[in-house]
Amino acid sequence: MNIHWAIPDLQEEDKQAAIDVLQSNWLSMGPVVKKFEESLSEYLNIKYAVATNNGTSSLDIALKCLDIKQGDEVILPALTYIATGNAVLYNNGTPIFVDIDDTLNIDPLKIEEKITDKTKAIINIDFGGNVCDYTSLEKISNTYDIPLVVDGAHSLGSVFKDKKCCSHGLINTTSFHAAKILTTIEGGMIFTDNIEIYDKSIQIRNQGESTKYIHNYLGNNYRMTDLIAAIGLNQVQRLDNTIQIQRKKAEFYKEHLQNVKFPKSLPNTVNCYLFFPILTDKRDQLYSHLQKEGIETRITFPLPLYDQPIFKNYKMDRCPNTEKISQTILSLPIYTKISSKEQEYIVRKINDFLK
Fold this sequence. Notes:
- The chain has helices spanning about 10-25, 30-45, 55-65, 80-90, 135-145, 195-205, 225-235, 240-255, 285-290, 320-330, 340-355, and strands spanning about 50, 75, 95-100, 120-125, 150, 160, 165, 170-175, 190, 210, 215, 270, 275-280, 330.
- By secondary structure, it is α/β, with parallel strands linked by helices.
- The chain has two domains: about 10-235, Type I PLP-dependent aspartate aminotransferase-like (Major domain) (Aspartate Aminotransferase, domain 2, 3-Layer(aba) Sandwich), CATH 3.40.640.10; about 240-355, Aspartate Aminotransferase, domain 1, CATH 3.90.1150.10.
- The strands form four sheets. The chain has a seven-stranded mixed sheet with strand order 1-9-8-5-4-2-3, with helices on both faces. The protein has a three-stranded antiparallel sheet with strand order 7-6-12, with no helix packed on it. A two-stranded antiparallel sheet has the order 10-11.
- β2, α4 (about 80-90) and β3 (about 95-100) form a beta-alpha-beta unit.
- α1 runs antiparallel to α7 (about 225-235), α2 (about 30-45) packs parallel to α7 and α3 (about 55-65) packs across α6.
- The longest helix is centred in the C-terminal third of the chain and has 18 residues, at about 240-255.
- The chain is globular, with a radius of gyration of 20 Å.
- The two termini are about 20 Å apart.
């Protein structure tokens, strides 16, 4: 058996939508991008959405909107994908890493001790779709008047206390990479209720242009095309159903896996389960065993971000929880197209190995 870690949930209507754009002769950013933005803005109940060519671009724009510059500090979790930290470096900021708690998300109790007069933003992620404590994060943001930036690459479809994730921060971003629950193969988006952030975002996305050939900001070509927006547009309408399917796949794992631990989930939250992480002291052996059995898994992530070579010039405090998790975490295959037979096979191979 050969089981992939992720397979995009592309249906015939998504493919036909892309064909329709190809036949329209308008392939670059245009009316379909606008419809895609409006559709997700409505889904999240947030005023403004700005589509981009990928999630990393969205993060870069978010920090540019906050005028992050040399000497500014940006607080972020020590356990995250490299793009979260890269966005800080793109803007010449200084990353300040904070340890995680049992949800695998940034620990709100450890943020305040990292705040200085140089702190200009706090970034969080909802690890694998598992939701952060937004009550605490927003309280810290408001108390210290420090903007909260949500890297929602994992959490489109997750919910915190009846409010959908990607709508909590001053600026929210997400990704539509091929492994995401809603995918345009590549792509991203920015969400905000702030008109100034929105206006600046749409300019930075398009070379900093305010009117044709007049450029107010140092921007880039971060535009999404109609071709890829078309692939994602129909997926918005079925996103809640997709999350229900994803959650059923996760519940199967939870009910049947033995001798592993799962991250803690907060009450009154809905996890979209972009990842399904398990924790085991035999992680490396299990990873190799599953690979031999035709099961693709991912170590998400093998290093605290501060141990990545590109951050070697930054003096960092160690984060013991992050270091422990990075040595024990393994993410299993989870996607709408994975079959019951495939999940049963995965569970059997794990349980037999860890007996």
